[in-house]
Design brief:
This protein is mostly beta strands. The protein has three domains: 105 residues, Thrombin, subunit H (Beta Barrel), CATH 2.40.10; 76 residues, 3-Layer(bab) Sandwich (Phage tail protein beta-alpha-beta fold), CATH 3.55.50; 99 residues, Elongation Factor Tu (Ef-tu), domain 3. Helix content is 14%, strand content 40%. It has six helices and 23 strands. The strands form five sheets. Strands 1, 2, 3, 4, 5, 6, 7, 13, 14, 19, 20, 21 and 22 form a 13-stranded mixed beta sheet that branches. A three-stranded mixed beta sheet has the order 9-12-11. β6 and β7 form a beta hairpin. The longest helix is centred in the last third of the chain and has 15 residues. The radius of gyration is 24 Å and the shape is globular. 34% of the residues are buried. The N terminus and C terminus are likely disordered.
């Protein structure tokens, strides 16, 4: 699937590569109109492929009937989607076909096939599981241990941190819902990428992704960029508990963000002449005292993302696959809003017009501290 790109001679148009059960679907590319992949921190990665349906002289529909009676495109086939930049290829997502939807309108020339796929988290949403994990006298049990056990049962790898220790923990739902709840309890990110379950704190340190460039002449790769700084998000989270009988008023414990500040100054309302800005944590039924504190800390960290940015990249000029759950440096947004951001969402879209990446970014600070991944923003764009 080739797409026309810009006239920049230094860049070849990015291509979309699709594999089904480890085999590239080269015969289907002439009928493939659009490929989009939606990534979000709050949900699974989902891909949508849109094909034109053409009927041959024997009455069979090309693409839809290919390989019949065991068609190539059917639920639970493995799927991989890549972006190809000249001789380098980067994975966008892998998973399974979830649904196919042929559409046959009155005008036969308008017949289409829509294929929907989900990342490997679909494996963890197939059954209702009832199980109880219990700590033994010899071994403690953490949420990280449970994640590793679930990963092994589903032929997945695991990159985890220990998280909360539990005396007894029950699951009475699907694995995916259970793991999302445990991630929320720990203030962890949870996602599956390239065959690995990730269950750990946000990765805000280390190498950032290649730089997003605004108003940088021929090296510009960002087509649109906007920012929102929301002051109506609390700076702290309060946990309130009643004291023992006869002890008087309630106890209040305040939690403030403890994650890395992505800038020169935290984006808070402090020093503005206002009362401290804190919201109360809702009660969590059945949670231990340690878990309540952990959830409060997690909520404080999430509320700290007061600065949000949204924009669109020319995928060919950017030359890379922008991924969520990672940091990226923005150059050209000024001293206040230029700097390091955390990637919240990305929608990758291949059409006849080219490769576009629509993104949403998060930041908990104001002020540009400089690009930590490169001494030259330009080298980050061209670094490959």
């Amino acid at each position: 699937m080739n797409h026309p790109g810009p006239t920049d001679n230094l860049r070849q148009p990015a291509e979309c590569i699709v594999k089904i059960d480890n085999k590239e679907i080269k015969d289907f590319y002439p009928y493939l109109n659009e490929v989009s992949v939606e990534m979000s921190r709050k949900s699974a990665t989902v891909a949508t492929l849109k094909f034109n349906l053409i009927r041959d002289e024997n009455g069979k529909w090309l693409v839809l009937d290919h390989g019949s009676p065991d068609p190539i495109l059917k639920p639970w086939r493995k799927i991989e989607i890549f972006a190809s930049f000249a001789e380098r290829r980067e994975e966008i997502m892998r998973g399974y076909i979830q649904k196919i939807k042929p559409n046959f309108p009155a005008d036969m020339s308008a017949a289409t096939l829509i294929v929907t796929a989900q990342d490997e988290s679909l494996l963890l949403d197939r059954e209702h599981v009832r199980h109880t994990w219990t700590t033994t006298d010899k071994n403690s049990m953490t949420d990280g241990d449970i994640v590793k056990t679930i990963a092994r049962k589903n032929q997945l790898k695991a990159e985890t941190q220990n998280g909360l220790e539990n005396v007894s923990l029950k699951i009475n739902t699907s694995y995916i819902r259970f793991l999302r709840d445990r991630a929320e309890a720990n203030g962890y990110e949870f996602y599956i990428r390239e065959g690995t379950i990730h269950f750990h704190k946000p990765e805000l340190e280390g190498q950032a992704q290649p730089t997003i460039m605004l108003y940088a002449g021929w090296s510009t790769n960002c087509l649109d960029f906007s920012i929102s700084n929301d002051g109506h998000k609390p700076d702290k989270v309060a946990v309130i508990r009643p004291k023992q009988v006869g002890a008087g008023a309630e106890d209040e414990q305040l939690f403030q963000p403890d994650i890395k500040v992505l800038g020169q100054k935290p984006a808070t309302s402090e020093n503005m002449g206002l009362k401290p800005f804190a919201w109360q944590l809702e009660q969590v039924n059945g949670a231990t005292d340690l878990e309540i504190k952990s959830r409060a800390q997690a909520l404080a960290n999430e509320n700290a993302w007061k600065v949000r940015a949204e924009g669109e990249l020319d995928g060919t000029l950017y030359g890379h696959v922008l991924l969520n759950f990672k940091t990226v440096y923005v150059d050209g947004a000024g001293d206040a809003f230029g700097g390091l951001y955390y990637v919240d969402e990305v929608t990758h879209r291949f059409t006849i017009e080219g490769y576009r990446q629509h993104f949403k970014l998060l930041r908990n600070a104001i002020g540009d501290e400089g690009n930590p991944s490169s001494s030259s923003p330009l080298s980050a764009v061209l670094g490959g």
